[in-house]
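Hi support team,

I've been running sequence recovery on a batch of backbones for a student project. Most finish fine, but this one hangs at about 90% for roughly twenty minutes before it completes. I'm not sure whether the input is malformed or the queue is just slow. I've pasted the C-alpha cells below so you can try to reproduce it. Let me know if you need the job ID as well.

Thanks,
M.K.
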C-alpha cells in the first residue's frame, strides 16, 4: 500500500462517518464502477452483482457479492478463483477483497 493510500485510509471515525453518510446518497465510486464493469464483462449472465468499497472510499478494500449460473457445479474456492482471475489486474492495487459467490435459485 502506498503511503498516500495509508494516510487516506487512516481517517478518524468522524471523517469516516461523514464520508459514509455523504456516500449513502451518492453513486458508485470510480473503483466500484471499474470492478463492476470488469465483472459484468467476465460474468455477463450474472443475475446479481454488488461491489462495495469497504475501506471508507479510498479503494483499498472491496466486498463483492455475485450470483451467476457460471458457478454451477463448482466448489466455493473454484468460484472465488474465477472472480480473482477476472480481477487480477485490479487486485494488485488492493489491500483486501471479500468475495461472496452463489448460484441463482431456480
Amino acid at each position: 500500500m502506498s503511503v498516500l493510500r495509508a494516510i487516506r485510509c487512516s481517517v478518524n471515525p468522524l471523517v469516516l462517518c461523514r464520508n459514509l453518510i455523504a456516500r449513502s446518497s451518492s453513486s458508485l465510486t470510480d473503483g466500484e464502477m471499474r470492478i463492476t464493469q470488469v465483472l459484468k464483462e467476465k460474468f455477463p449472465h450474472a443475475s446479481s452483482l454488488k461491489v462495495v468499497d469497504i475501506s471508507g472510499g479510498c479503494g483499498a478494500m472491496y466486498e463483492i457479492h455475485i450470483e451467476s449460473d457460471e458457478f454451477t457445479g463448482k466448489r466455493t474456492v473454484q468460484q472465488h478463483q474465477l472472480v480473482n482471475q477476472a480481477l487480477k489486474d485490479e487486485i494488485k492495487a488492493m489491500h483486501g477483497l471479500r468475495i461472496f459467490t452463489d448460484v441463482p435459485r431456480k
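--
Follow-up from support: It reproduced on our side and the slowdown came from queue contention, not your input. The CA atoms of residues 12 and 24 lie 18 Å apart. No action needed from you.
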